[in-house]
Write a structure and sequence with these properties.
This protein is an alpha+beta fold and about 110 residues long. The protein is built from three helices and five strands, in the order αββββαβα. Strands 2-1-3-4-5 form a five-stranded mixed sheet, sandwiched between helices.
């Protein structure tokens, strides 16, 4: 069951929205969904990514990380990990960052 759970997970992408209250919106996976002034959570099962645009406000970063940790705690029973990624101009992503881009764009093919 454990093996099946992590490998059958359908990735979900959430965007942090409001400055006044904690709100997240489930949005379609894809590179075009990302914005320099927003923060996102990509729930990929065993890996939960918190991605921050280069112009993201600290409040959105904090809330995004909190959501990622809550998913890990409540939906994964602490099994897996949260990975923070900052927007970068570097096109040669490696490791976890490469995984983020592969998962984000995998449904576009």
């Amino acid at each position: 069951f454990f093996f099946f759970f992590f490998f059958s997970h359908v990735p979900r992408l959430y965007q942090s929205l409001s400055d006044k209250e904690i709100k997240f919106k489930l949005i379609k996976l894809g590179f075009d969904a990302l914005s320099t002034d927003a923060a996102f959570v990509l729930d990929a099962g065993a890996k939960i990514f918190a991605w921050y645009g280069s112009e993201t406000k600290k409040l959105h970063r904090f809330r995004t990380l909190a959501l990622a940790k809550r998913i890990l705690s409540e939906e994964r029973s602490g099994k897996g990990r949260v990975i923070e990624i900052e927007q970068s101009e570097d096109e040669n992503a490696e490791g976890d960052e490469a995984d983020f881009w592969e998962i984000l764009t995998s449904k576009m093919e």
